């Protein structure tokens, strides 16, 4: 598994000491959980991104949605234009901390079967995203 912004030619010893803060992307677009799927897809298209960080009414990060997740919901038989992001997020997480090692984050991503993890501070505010390289 190759994570975003890994240095070319880095050794395993170097990678083992790196933290999520060394490799994460900036947070990018953050949206509220009451946004509809259609609007979220429009925001993604405008921002030219494949994911959005979703925040609650307090501004705390509660998850991440991807373009493929939203497209699957929109194409589902139970879809209506009133479906909000909070309706599809499910359980909160997974998340990672900027001080988590890249090795630990890689294990978490494999175990959770996700391609991107929100990076949050100790208060739950979004700092960035750790995503698989494409």
From TrEMBL:
Transmembrane segments: none annotated. CDD domains: CBS_pair_SF. Signal peptide: none annotated. Residues 24-80 form the CBS domain. Keywords: CBS domain. PROSITE patterns: CBS. It holds the Pfam family CBS. The keyword Transcription regulation does not apply. PANTHER family: CBS DOMAIN-CONTAINING PROTEIN CBSX3, MITOCHONDRIAL, REGULATORY PROTEIN. This is CBS domain-containing protein. It comes from Streptomyces mutomycini.
């Amino acid at each position: 598994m190759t994570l975003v912004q890994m240095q070319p030619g880095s050794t395993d010893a170097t990678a083992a000491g790196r933290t999520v803060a060394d490799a994460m992307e900036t947070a990018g677009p953050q949206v509220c959980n009451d946004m509809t799927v259609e609007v979220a897809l429009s925001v993604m298209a405008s921002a030219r991104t494949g994911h959005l960080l979703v925040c609650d009414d307090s501004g705390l990060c509660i998850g991440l949605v991807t373009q493929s997740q939203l497209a699957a919901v929109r194409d589902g038989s139970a879809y209506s234009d009133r479906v909000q992001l909070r309706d599809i997020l499910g359980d909160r997480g997974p998340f990672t901390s900027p001080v988590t090692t890249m090795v630990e984050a890689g294990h978490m991503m494999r175990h959770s079967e996700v391609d991107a993890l929100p990076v949050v501070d100790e208060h739950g505010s979004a700092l960035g995203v750790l995503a698989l390289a494409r």
